[in-house]
């Protein structure tokens, strides 16, 4: 399989196809539902439940190994995602659009999580070791570009259509149909661009495979410090998980209810352009300093860089500055800090996954990470409604403390992540 398969032609778009559905399902859905009149409690609960497929994907990932090829899996899943977004678009004008669209988003989320598993496996099979290292940055870049497209371009299109038609239902119906058509074109491209030399592996013993997976799964919970490790993974994003769910409602809500009163297009421009650019620069810089000095030196500074900018939203919620530049500055600082600090967290997850079953253990670790995002996010709308935006952001900042404290008890090699001389 690892012949000359022109990776430049398929790696960028294949990874774009992983990031775009995630951005639409997890982030853009929040903006859409807010503009369609859904309250914050329901947004917080139901859109957070959409994280669940990424939480439990380690449970069915062996099935993707047992049947068919990775290429058939990700093509089928991308086609299913395309159809799902088209159905969401057509469902929005209906009376019970909220329930219908959530069910379809749920299907799309399972398909997207499966697409991620198959795409990652295909990447490892299709490339030699040196190619994998070289294209790692390319994968990351195009994944982030897909997030820019979702959180920026798609939101801007939705905002433009709102103004053009004066009808938010029609605007978001057309927007989701556009997303479905984009995913369809991506699927067609990947069908022709990805190499077809992968062979399906016929498993002689399904029972043996299941037993093997059971052993691998159990071995994860036998790692040193596993109690502290799991507590850290689950609590590290306790504040961020709530911030992400209520930040868009805060930006869009009327000033009369404590929001900033921005338009949908404003949000798309701020987060989808300046925000993603800052996130990318922060992530690149985070990788550079860890590679230079190792994780130990940068763990605490990077965690602080990730969480301290939340104080900017505390100030915005209390003072409501008239100038939009304060909002831009806060978002840029928060996104840069997130990109910079999250690099330390992901590097630690790589350390947790070290060992014979690295791929499976990394999948399990990221599943717990997604669980730590889903559960607090479900409660975020209720907490915000009870506290109001000003006190809510104070609570979010305080919620970052448990993860910070637990990080001081983690044991890992001092130079872990440092590039060899």
Automatic annotation (TrEMBL):
The keyword Membrane applies. Residues 7-415 form the Major facilitator superfamily (MFS) profile domain. GO terms for molecular function: transmembrane transporter activity. It is found in: Membrane. GO terms for cellular component: membrane. Its main location: membrane. InterPro entries: AmpG_permease/AT-1, MFS, MFS_dom, MFS_trans_sf. The chain crosses the membrane at residues 7-31, 73-92, 98-122, 142-161, 173-192, 213-236, 269-291, 298-319, 325-350, 362-383, 389-411. It is a multi-pass membrane protein. Coiled coil: none annotated. Gene3D superfamilies: MFS general substrate transporter like domains (1.20.1250.20). Keywords: Membrane, Transmembrane, Transmembrane helix, Transport. This is MFS transporter. It comes from Flavobacterium muglaense.
């Amino acid at each position: 399989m690892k012949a000359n398969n022109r990776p430049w032609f398929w790696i960028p778009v294949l990874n774009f196809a992983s990031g775009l559905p995630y951005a639409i399902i997890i982030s853009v859905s929040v903006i859409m539902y807010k503009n369609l009149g859904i309250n914050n409690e329901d947004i917080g609960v139901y859109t957070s439940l959409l994280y669940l497929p990424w939480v439990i994907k380690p449970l069915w990932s062996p099935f993707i190994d047992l049947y068919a090829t990775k290429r058939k899996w990700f093509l089928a899943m991308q086609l299913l995602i395309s159809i799902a977004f088209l159905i969401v678009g057509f469902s929005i004008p209906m009376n019970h659009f909220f329930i219908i669209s959530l069910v379809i988003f749920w299907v799309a989320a399972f398909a997207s999580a499966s697409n991620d598993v198959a795409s990652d496996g295909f990447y490892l099979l299709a490339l030699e070791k040196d190619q994998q290292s070289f294209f790692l940055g390319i994968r990351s870049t195009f994944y982030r570009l897909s997030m820019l497209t979702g959180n920026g371009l798609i939101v801007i299109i939705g905002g433009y259509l709102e103004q053009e038609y004066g009808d938010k239902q029609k605007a978001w119906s057309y927007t989701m149909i556009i997303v479905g058509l984009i995913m369809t074109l991506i699927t067609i491209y990947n069908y022709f661009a990805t190499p077809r030399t992968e062979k399906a592996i016929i498993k002689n013993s399904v029972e043996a495979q299941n037993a093997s997976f059971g052993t691998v799964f159990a071995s994860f919970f036998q790692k040193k410090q596993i109690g502290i490790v799991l507590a850290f993974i689950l609590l590290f994003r306790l504040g961020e998980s709530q911030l992400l769910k209520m930040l868009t409602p805060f930006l869009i809500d009327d000033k009369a209810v404590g929001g900033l009163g921005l338009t949908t297009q404003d949000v798309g421009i701020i987060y989808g352009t300046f925000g993603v650019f800052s996130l990318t620069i922060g992530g690149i810089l985070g990788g550079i300093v860890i590679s230079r000095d190792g994780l130990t030196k940068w763990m605490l500074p990077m965690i602080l860089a990730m969480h301290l900018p939340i104080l900017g939203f505390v100030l915005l919620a209390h003072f409501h500055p008239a100038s939009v530049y304060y909002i831009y500055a806060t978002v840029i600082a928060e996104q840069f800090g997130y990109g910079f600090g999250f690099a330390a967290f992901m590097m630690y997850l790589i350390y947790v996954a070290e060992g014979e079953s690295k791929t499976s253990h990394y999948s399990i670790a990221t599943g717990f990470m997604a669980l730590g995002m889903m559960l607090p996010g479900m409660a975020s709308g209720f907490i915000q409604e009870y506290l109001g935006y000003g006190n809510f952001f104070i609570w979010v900042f305080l919620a970052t403390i448990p993860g910070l404290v637990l990080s001081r008890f983690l044991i890992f090699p001092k130079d872990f992540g440092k590039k060899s001389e």
